From TrEMBL:
<dbReference type="GO" id="GO:0005886">
    <property type="term" value="C:plasma membrane"/>
</dbReference>
<dbReference type="Pfam" id="PF00520">
    <property type="entry name" value="Ion_trans"/>
</dbReference>
<feature type="region of interest" description="Disordered">
    <location>
        <begin position="30"/>
        <end position="73"/>
    </location>
</feature>
<dbReference type="Pfam" id="PF12796">
    <property type="entry name" value="Ank_2"/>
</dbReference>
<keyword id="KW-0675">Receptor</keyword>
<keyword id="KW-0472">Membrane</keyword>
<keyword id="KW-0109">Calcium transport</keyword>
<keyword id="KW-0677">Repeat</keyword>
<keyword id="KW-0407">Ion channel</keyword>
<keyword id="KW-0175">Coiled coil</keyword>
<dbReference type="InterPro" id="IPR024862">
    <property type="entry name" value="TRPV"/>
</dbReference>
<protein>
    <submittedName>
        <fullName>Transient receptor potential cation channel subfamily V member 3</fullName>
    </submittedName>
</protein>
<feature type="compositionally biased region" description="Polar residues">
    <location>
        <begin position="63"/>
        <end position="73"/>
    </location>
</feature>
<keyword id="KW-0107">Calcium channel</keyword>
<dbReference type="Pfam" id="PF00023">
    <property type="entry name" value="Ank"/>
</dbReference>
<dbReference type="InterPro" id="IPR008347">
    <property type="entry name" value="TrpV1-4"/>
</dbReference>
<feature type="repeat" description="ANK">
    <location>
        <begin position="319"/>
        <end position="345"/>
    </location>
</feature>
Length: 463
């Protein structure tokens, strides 16, 4: 699986990324996606891998101009909206493709073209007779099969004019009374259901745009509940806790976390479909991407200290686990695998190497015609494994072609496995215990600090 780009990067080059949450996995298909759509692609966990637009026309991988959109654009009902406007054949053709041109203009960052198209759209909406102006505008701003808006399209294609494009779209929506519907429009297809422009702006690490969306009334508590964001198996999608705040935390964006937590509308205690809150989500991220656990600890501490809710760390998910209990549950397996797998890999290499060498030294059949069952690799490997456990004997030496060399190899194997490998395992586990002790001390100090903060607030309260 290829997932999002490096999470800890502060700057990402402009360009275009994959579709939707721009988390793409090989073989992941949405029923709503046309057959000619390429599967999403991403490189590293929890951040976008934004690329320059390759097609040259601003089309991203899930083009909003689906077959269903085409049918809508060319339907007689749509044409009847502008029946009162007299136009030539070329103008009529351009009018039918207005949605496509708007999406293309925002993706390419063509501000002048967008302003011209919005003026034309305004004129057409006023002439429309079979639907209200807000309904008509939202119809032209939204992909009918996926629910993606031209605002999302603009955020899909980051360029030097993206900020101005977004502000132009928001101003137009506000002037025409569709701002709330437009800014909070969400994907409707099953895979990415619930994802809004705010989610995309945060994933794109666009602080100014995120701030503008929040100031304009974007729903900061919207849940992205598509199956891609709530996978049954961790390698089938990207789980981040569904909310905008959890997304900012899981992508290491403290400035956006601060922005959201300062907003009175943000529900810090919000729980997703698994019953997880933002701290549970961070623990899950740490489980999946243990090489980047340092930032998870920083985000966890930051949220815990800034939160006014005393029950945030004691909230239980649907499995009945608090964030710390979830960390303990998932951490046990991680510690075991981290140390034991290293030992097992080296041990298997030694076992196979010595097994092949010893099997080659055993005579297959003696002169009398009697053949030995331990002349093949399987029985030799079993005897060596027994020697590792202290249960074997040196009976197989009796059938060797070169007894002295055979015995020397056996002694070398025993010394390497007993003395070196097991001591290596002990050293690895000792190092792990030391690391856990340091982390436990850090958590203990944090808890003491939190307790002192509670006591200070209680003392400062007037009687």
């Amino acid at each position: 699986m290829k997932v999002l780009g490096t999470m800890l990067e502060d700057g990402i080059p402009p360009g275009e990324s994959s579709s939707h949450f721009f988390l793409e996995i090989d073989g992941f298909e949405s029923n709503a996606t046309p057959d000619n759509t390429s599967p999403p692609v991403f490189s590293k966990p929890m951040d976008s891998n934004i690329r320059p637009c390759a097609s040259g026309n601003g089309e991203d991988m899930d083009s909003p101009q689906s077959l269903q959109d085409d049918a809508t654009e060319y339907s007689p009902n749509v044409d009847s909206c502008c029946a009162n406007i007299s136009q030539g054949p070329e103008q009529t053709s351009a009018r039918k493709k207005l949605k496509k041109y708007i999406f293309r203009a925002v993706s390419e960052g063509n501000i002048e073209e967008l302003q011209r198209l919005l003026a034309e759209l305004k004129e057409r909406s006023n002439a429309c007779t079979n639907m209200t102006v807000p309904e008509y505008l939202m119809k032209k701003f939204t992909s009918s099969d996926t629910g993606k808006t031209c605002l999302m399209k603009a955020l899909l294609n980051i360029n030097q004019n993206t900020n101005e494009i977004v502000n132009t779209l928001l101003s137009f929506a506000e002037e025409n009374g569709i701002l709330e519907r437009f800014i909070n429009a969400a994907y409707t297809e099953e895979a990415y259901k619930g994802q809004t422009a705010l989610n995309i702006a945060i994933e794109r690490r666009q602080y100014e745009i995120t701030q503008s969306l929040i100031e304009k009334g974007a729903d900061v508590n919207a849940h992205a509940q598509g199956i891609f964001f709530n996978p049954k198996h961790k390698h089938e999608g990207f789980y981040f806790g569904e909310t905008a705040l959890a997304l900012a935390a899981c992508t290491n964006q403290p400035d956006i976390i601060q922005l959201l937590m300062d907003n009175t509308r943000t529900n810090i205690t919000s729980q997703d479909s698994r019953g997880n809150n933002i701290l549970h989500a961070l623990v899950t991220v740490a489980e999946d991407f243990k090489t980047q656990n340092d930032f998870v600890i920083r985000m966890y501490d930051m949220i815990l200290l800034k939160s006014k809710d005393r029950n945030l760390e004691t909230t239980k998910n649907k499995e009945g686990l608090t964030p710390l209990q979830l960390a303990a549950k998932t951490g046990k397996l991680e510690v075991i695998l981290q140390d034991v797998i290293k030992f097992l890999v080296v041990y298997i290499v030694f076992l196979l190497g010595f097994g092949v060498a010893l099997a080659a030294l055993i005579e297959t059949c003696q002169d009398g015609g009697e053949c030995h069952s331990k002349s093949s690799l399987g029985p030799v490997l079993m005897d060596l494994f027994k020697l590792t456990l202290g249960l074997g004997d040196l009976e197989i030496q009796q059938n060797s072609k070169y007894p002295v060399l055979f015995l020397l190899l056996l002694i070398t194997f025993v010394v390497l496995t007993f003395v070196l490998l097991f001591n290596m395992l002990i050293a690895l586990m000792g190092e792990t215990v030391e690391d856990i002790s340091k982390e436990s001390e850090h958590i203990w100090k944090l808890q003491i600090q939190a307790e002192f903060k509670i006591i200070q607030e209680l003392i400062a309260k007037p009687p």
